[in-house]
């Protein structure tokens, strides 16, 4: 099972073929337009299922299946967290709970980015299980920006997930330390000298045990299309 997380920087309809070249089973695309605006080119494979959410028809979060997997947004979705979507994934080789994430809620005075994730993982405490759970997307967060006295910084999110044996696939695969990542997923203003790691796939330990590969797109290959690079994760399922 291959998953891709990518903030496409809008206009996914013009860029979908570059993601499809990797043959993902599931793609979580931040800053994606509403499906009614998704007019794919003739040489682009059409997704078999789409789940989209957003207040702006040009800029929401889209979850795409290119195989047997089907999506259902769970009724417990709390719109206060906007683009953090609890989704039942069924129909493929394994059923699981997917949290599709684009941490971006400027209306929340407590914090627009990682604070959203902190609130969500506490709200969905009972839904986030020690098995068959994946959280993936643009977290807009890194340990380098931790404010030690602030509840809900990046490190506390990582630690709370670890309590349920849920870990970052990238950090497990490359044996990396949070805040010291060697593979950036975002370049501020697309400048090569301003790299950061903001995109993640956290998976429960049953997925970690069958983790086959993790890849981050290169600056050279992807900067023309977005300030973010895709995070590509493959599980041996």
UniProtKB/TrEMBL annotation:
It comes from the Bacteria. InterPro entries: Endo/exonu/phosph_ase_sf. One of its GO terms (molecular function) is endonuclease activity. Keywords: Endonuclease, Hydrolase, Nuclease. This is Endonuclease/exonuclease/phosphatase family protein. It comes from Flavobacterium ginsenosidimutans.
